[in-house]
Amino acid sequence: MTDPTISHLRVDGATLHYEVRGRGPLLLLIPGGTGGAASFDGVADGLAADYTVATYDPRGLSRSPLDDPEARQRVEQHADDAFRLLELLSPDAPARVAGCSSGAIVALHLLATHPERIERVVAHEPPVVEVLPDAAVHRALLARVQDTFRRDGLMPAAAEFAAGLRRPDAAPAEPPASTELRPQAPAQTEQPPQTAVQAEQPSQAPAQADPPSQVPTQAEQPPQAPAQAEQPAQVPVSAEQPAQVPVSAEQPTQVPVQAELSPQAAARVERTMADMPYFLGRIVPSFMAYVPDQDRLKALSDRLVLAGGTDSRGELPYRPAAFLAERFGTELVHFPGGHTGLSTHPTEFGELLRKVLSDQFAEP
């Protein structure tokens, strides 16, 4: 793997850690979950043969600290961070952008607000559940998860969340595993330790309740995406004002690091676990309450590629992309694996992403 150039960008309320490798037109990769820049380690080198590839840790996660750790998180501000990176790294030319899970939500808002700066966007399973006909059910799920977080702590809430991402007809799984909505760990060849909670992760952080989110993203085999449990009870929650849970709700238990993990892999797993309270308490309720401008996106659909996982059909993170593709009259492109296909099938995922980003790409 090529060592990237690491830098920091000061933005409103935070300092972003970002990494750049390769040369050519800019490709900005927006991670989901708690994976950060490391979630794209399995594909970045391959893409760097054709692009200047930029990856980063979103504000508040991993190596991108917030000025105010209690600050409310908004999709709009995260999209503005991505825009600042575009302005810095490609001031004179539009860029290509790809996002997974919660990072795909950021990519959608970035396209809607700054289309002049975007040549093409690939959005892999953005969990914009407010576009779905049964959005009220998912608001109830989010309210239930946040209530569990406040009352019982991180692990039970993460388990509740993971169960809610599964297909309604799926058989109950063993301990719920991760999905790309979960915080994401980094990609690796060494297998990370399994624990009760999993992040939306490429590298394997723990396998169980993981707060889904992307996004959602590597070679350390992530846990299988959770199947779905019974529908949660309906609890009214305002889409505009998602409930915020104090990040300090309960620190996740320390992950025992296996001896075979390299120090770098162990550090990534530790970062993923440390970020989970922030992800589940601040990112999930705000991002999944986000309502995209569907008319605006439809008008820009010639440069938007909506994507889903071949193995995640019918799961909650998959459904919004399928719904929007049908509404826009475009094809849903299927990537290998499920919500965390970026982690589980990095080689195939990267090859298809290169094709989809290409100017010659034709939708099936």
UniProtKB/TrEMBL annotation:
Ranges for region Disordered: 165-259
Species name: Nonomuraea zeae
Listed name of the protein: Alpha/beta fold hydrolase
One example GO MF annotation: triacylglycerol lipase activity
UniProt domain AB hydrolase-1: residue ranges: 25-161
GO biological process: glycerolipid catabolic process
PANTHER family, A to Z: AB HYDROLASE-1 DOMAIN-CONTAINING PROTEIN, HYDROLASE, ALPHA/BETA FOLD FAMILY PROTEIN
Keyword Nucleus included in the entry's annotation: no
InterPro entries per UniProt: AB_hydrolase (IPR050471), AB_hydrolase_1 (IPR000073), AB_hydrolase_fold (IPR029058)
Highest taxon above the source species: Bacteria
Swiss-Prot/TrEMBL keywords: Hydrolase
Biased composition regions of type Low complexity, renumbered to the chain: 183-239
